[in-house]
Amino acid sequence: MPSVVLPGIDWDNGRQKPLLLLSLQPRYWPLIVSGVKRYEYRRSFRADAVQAYIYLSSPRKEIAGFVDFGTPVIDTPERIADLAEQECSGSRQRMLDYLQGCEKGFAIPILAHEELSRGIPLRELVERFRFTAPQGYMVLDRHPTLRDFIIAHHLKADAKGSSRGHK
């Protein structure tokens, strides 16, 4: 599998993937980096493949990485829970609890990831952009100044040597 391509360059079925900023609980990031976590599960999400910078919530409070996601599997909570069980034995009931009350769930394939060599702390984002971390995700194209800053930071950190990986 190839290493992560830079934002705005990867293509899915002949079109550019949207670029998001996705909030994630910090306990899941090492599982993505290690390749143990192959899907990101959500109660609601987009139906298309995306790329996303990863914002880690408290206590980390920083943008820590970049992920190339495939097209989500959108299915019943039972089928999403079966997929979670295949990925991690014993997780079916937790997934059913998480998706309780939903008609459908989302299992978003993690195609590749890149850990930034230096994260972007929340404090810096607040000072520069009056940033508020998204609860789920935000579309960065709707915030071009923030998007350009994050990409420039990524490119600068990448030039100094970040950690690239894939599942």
Whole-number total of structural domains: 1
Mean pLDDT: 89
Secondary structural class: alpha+beta
Q: How many alpha or pi helices?
A: 5
Count of strand segments: 10
Taking pLDDT < 50 over at least 5 consecutive residues as the criterion, the unreliable ranges are: none
CATH topology type = ph1033 like fold
Note the gap between the termini: 8 Å
The CATH architecture designation is Roll
Sketch the major β-sheet.
Answer: 8 strands, mixed
Report on this structure:
Helices cover 29% and strands 33% of the residues. It is globular and about 45 Å long. A hairpin with a 2-residue loop joins strand 1 and strand 2. The termini are close together. Helix 2 runs antiparallel to helix 3. It contains five helices and ten strands; from the N terminus they run E-E-E-H-E-E-E-E-H-H-E-H-E-H-E.
Keywords:
single chain; 167 residues; alpha+beta; two-stranded antiparallel ribbon
